[in-house]
């Protein structure tokens, strides 16, 4: 059975009060429409059609990599009108699945169950019981409990408004039947719109039964109309991810204060994550990793037994097993730390590799540098990698000891086991095994007098 998924995404989203089309607003740093697309992509034998309209160019540009048919709805004349634009995408034997681009948390299982209810004489409808159904189309049933129609809030009679079973808008039906009913839609209703919901009454008239199912949670079918709802769904999504991680063996000191905007591709066990940690992009965390409070990790690979203390920013970095980072360290893109490296407070590292057992513990900038193993870099050491136009590399070979407050003016190589005296400005390569220092000789002036304040 072939599935044609139609995602309705042409609406404006006035209540977002935004220049950005609603479906490009993000949950977990992913556009709402992308969530719906990613979920429906997991259905077998499925082609996806997206009905777009409001913010057309921006939507197409932002989501140009989606493997979908794009159908433009120039004027938004209603959900039925939106689906009418997709006639050419619908074959008679397809099962057509209708989704909304602003309902990001719908689960694959819920959709699979819905699709399973479709046959030549059944239409599948996803409904939800709501504490406050205001704004939703209501599911009207006859005395035997059979669905007879959907009535929109604005068209509902007072007794119909009391119905708490709401229309999620999500349904699945055979293509041939849908096309027949779409051709019959009118707009004689309170909003003057072509309502997709009118196909329910037509189905019933054609002796097609409406089979309803419900999602596991209401949150799955909630749409985003304003930023309050957006923030609610963000929290729901984050809490779900936190729960999955805890089930996989991660301790989260507060699951309500943990965010993943991306994924953890490889996840070890016995990881402990303190509060306010944000993980973005694609990451990997080894066994026994500890992450301190307020740390941000993006597109990084963290080895086993790594300890990251509070307030670190780690972006596109690789951290070898047993390394210790922070607090207040910043690892910028293309940082590669081998095993048992120590990076301390107020240390910034960019596009550099540090071999095993080396330590850069305080107040340093290391950029465009290759650091060997067993190196100790003293407090306040700076690699001067940039002359205002070009970047140059620094090489610090194995076993080097660099005294505090040293500037290494690149390009420069510090030979194996060399020692650099504190306070040096190193502009030339230094030999192996020797002490090199560049420092004005210390003098003491015996008969020097401190200035004295004049009494007034
Ligand atoms: C719709 C349903 C209502 C249901 C509710 C659930 C109809 C007539 N009503 O109402 O029964 O309870 O959703 O949220 O279907 N869209 C287009 N083109 C259009 C109009 C809408 O693409 O011309 C898209 C929107 O971008 C949105 C979705 O369709 O993703 C729903 O549109 P919306 O205006 O929110 O529908 P409601 O009036 O809330
Ligand atoms: Ca809506």
| CATH homologous superfamily title of the largest domain | Spore Coat Polysaccharide Biosynthesis Protein SpsA, Chain A
Shape: elongated
Q: From the 3D coordinates, which CATH architecture of the largest domain would you assign?
A: Alpha-Beta Complex
Any idea of the CATH class of the largest domain? Alpha Beta
Proportion of helical residues: 10-25%
Low-confidence stretches: none
CATH fold title of the largest domain: Spore Coat Polysaccharide Biosynthesis Protein SpsA, Chain A
Determine the structural class based on helices, strands and strand pairing.
alpha/beta
Average pLDDT number: 97
The portion of residues forming beta strands comes to: 25-35%
N-to-C CA distance? 101 Å
Q: What do these coordinates show?
A:
With 456 residues, the chain is of the alpha/beta class. The chain has a 23-stranded parallel beta sheet that branches. The relative contact order is 0.07. The chain contains eight helices and 37 strands. It is elongated, with a radius of gyration of 31 Å. Helices cover 16% and strands 33% of the residues. It folds into two domains: 3-221, Spore Coat Polysaccharide Biosynthesis Protein SpsA, Chain A (Alpha-Beta Complex); 227-436, UDP N-Acetylglucosamine Acyltransferase, domain 1, CATH 2.160.10. A hairpin with a 5-residue loop joins strand 8 and strand 9 (147-151). Bound molecules: uridine-diphosphate-N-acetylglucosamine and calcium ion. Calcium ion binds next to loops.
Can you summarize this structure?
With 456 residues, the chain is of the alpha/beta class.
């Amino acid at each position: 059975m072939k599935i044609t998924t139609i995602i309705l995404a042409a609406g404006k989203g006035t209540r977002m009060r935004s220049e950005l089309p609603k479906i490009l607003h993000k949950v977990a740093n992913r556009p709402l429409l992308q969530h719906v697309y990613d979920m429906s992509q997991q259905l077998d034998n499925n082609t996806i059609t997206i009905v777009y309209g409001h913010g057309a160019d921006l939507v197409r540009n932002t989501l140009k990599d989606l493997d979908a048919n794009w159908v433009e709805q120039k004027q938004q004349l209603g959900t039925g009108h939106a689906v009418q634009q997709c006639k050419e995408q619908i074959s008679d034997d397809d099962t057509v699945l209708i989704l909304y681009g602003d309902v990001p948390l719908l689960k694959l299982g819920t959709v699979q169950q819905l699709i399973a209810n479709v046959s030549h004489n059944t239409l599948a409808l996803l409904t939800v019981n709501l504490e406050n159904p205001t704004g939703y189309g209501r599911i009207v049933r006859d005395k035997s409990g059979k669905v007879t129609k959907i009535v929109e809030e604005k068209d509902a009679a007072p007794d119909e408004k009391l119905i708490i079973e709401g229309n999620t808008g999500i349904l699945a039906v055979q293509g041939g039947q849908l096309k027949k009913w779409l051709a019959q839609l009118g707009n004689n209703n309170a909003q003057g719109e072509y309502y997709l919901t009118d196909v329910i009454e037509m189905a019933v008239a054609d002796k097609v039964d409406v089979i309803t199912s419900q999602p596991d949670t209401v949150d799955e079918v909630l749409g985003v109309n304003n930023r309050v709802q957006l923030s609610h769904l963000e929290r729901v999504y984050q809490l779900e991810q936190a729960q999955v991680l805890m089930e996989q063996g991660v301790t989260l000191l507060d699951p309500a204060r943990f965010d993943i905007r991306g994924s953890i591709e490889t996840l070890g066990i016995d990881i402990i994550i303190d509060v306010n940690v944000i993980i973005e992009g694609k990451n990997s965390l080894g066994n026994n990793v500890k992450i301190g409070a307020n740390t941000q990790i993006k597109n990084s690979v963290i080895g086993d037994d790594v300890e990251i203390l509070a307030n670190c920013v780690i972006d596109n970095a690789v951290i070898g097993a047993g390394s210790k980072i922070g607090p207040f360290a910043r690892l910028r893109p293309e940082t590669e730390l081998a095993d048992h490296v120590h990076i301390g407070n107020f240390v910034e590292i960019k596009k550099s590799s540090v071999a095993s057992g080396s330590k850069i513990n305080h107040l340093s900038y290391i950029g465009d540098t290759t650091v060997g193993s067993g190196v100790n870099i003293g407090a306040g050491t700076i690699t001067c990698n940039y002359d205002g136009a070009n970047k140059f590399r620094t090489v610090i070979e194995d076993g080097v000891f660099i005294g505090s407050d040293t500037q290494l003016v690149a390009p420069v190589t510090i030979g194996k086991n060399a020692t650099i005296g504190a306070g040096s400005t190193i502009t030339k390569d230094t030999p192996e095994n020797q002490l090199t220092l560049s420092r004005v000789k210390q003098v003491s002036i015996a008969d020097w007098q401190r200035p004295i304040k004049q009494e007034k």
